[in-house]
Amino acid sequence: MYNAEYKEAFLKASEHAEETKNQYRLYFKRTEPFEAQKGKDLYDMDFGMLEELFYWVQRKTERSAVNFFNTIKNYITWAKDNGYGESSLNPIIDTINTEFVSKYLYREGIKYYTRNDLFKCFENINNVRDKALVLALFEGINGNKFSEIINLRREDLSEKEGRYYASLLSDEVNLTNRQLEISKELYDMLIETFNTQEYKSEKGKVNRIADGEYVFRKNRVGVNGVRITVPVLQSIIIKVIKDAFDDVQITTTTIGNSGVMYYANEFMGTDRILTKEIVTKVAEKFDLYGMEIKGKKYPSFMRFKEIIDIDFMEEEYGHLKLNF
Known about the structure:
Strand order of the largest sheet: 1-2-3
Mean pLDDT: 90
Largest sheet: 3 strands, antiparallel
Pfam families: MrpR_N_CB
Low-confidence stretches: none
Keywords: DNA recombination
Shape: elongated
Organism: Lysinibacillus zambalensis
Structural class: alpha+beta
Domain MrpR N-terminal core-binding: 1-79
Strand content: 5-15%
Radius of gyration: 23 Å
Order of helices and strands: HHHHHHHHEEEHEEHHEHEEHHE
Helix content: 40-55%
Number of helices: 14
InterPro entries: DNA_brk_join_enz, Integrase-like_cat_sf, MrpR_N_CB
């Protein structure tokens, strides 16, 4: 951290939990190169220079930007109150909220999502089928060429002692099946999708859905067959999901990778260490295997490292360490 003794004094004076303080240390570590380049601590920067910093840190979500910028503002306020800096005036006089940070968000980069982000964006989606598709990808349902989604039937969904499961056809060629535990929210969405008989297009046109045993089915008009197809799935992403999430770069891959990071965080203990055991558990959920020896599958730890975005995870979920 730039001027680490001042930053640590600020953290010591705060009443936040140690986990929150570690998050603030990550913020200050991120600003360190900028401070070193300018030769100034944050508390000596004018608003023009701080604006340059706000663009430079490339926050991708409103929540992460609000948290980041508020930490900077609080640090500057503490420094001014303690007599540090060339001026006693705080250059940030506005409230740091979503309106304040909106113009500084980095729109061009790949964007990842937390589970809460998904449900917030679901408010912009009319049809439960499209919501269920996104949440299914987020929870690890995919398969070879979307085989687990395309072949999912009502009878493949089950509940036992308050836990919910989906039996999935992960490979249509080799007829490979796997059992996956899913959330109650996804289970309910999939049941509702199966029971829904109409689909409302983005232009407001209501279409009848084909009858059949599959959860994800086509519209009746102008198509042959019942099961949803890969082109239709891709069309949902292009025509519905991109608009609902206000993200032109969102793909089935970024949704799935967001889920990988979410569950990696969920499976970690309080020590916040991402171990081989946890990675293996996530790999099993998302079918992320790199090799098979004598019938036993092994996860690719290199591939897992390529999938996760450490900056995103630390911004959204807190400090962590890799041990694999």
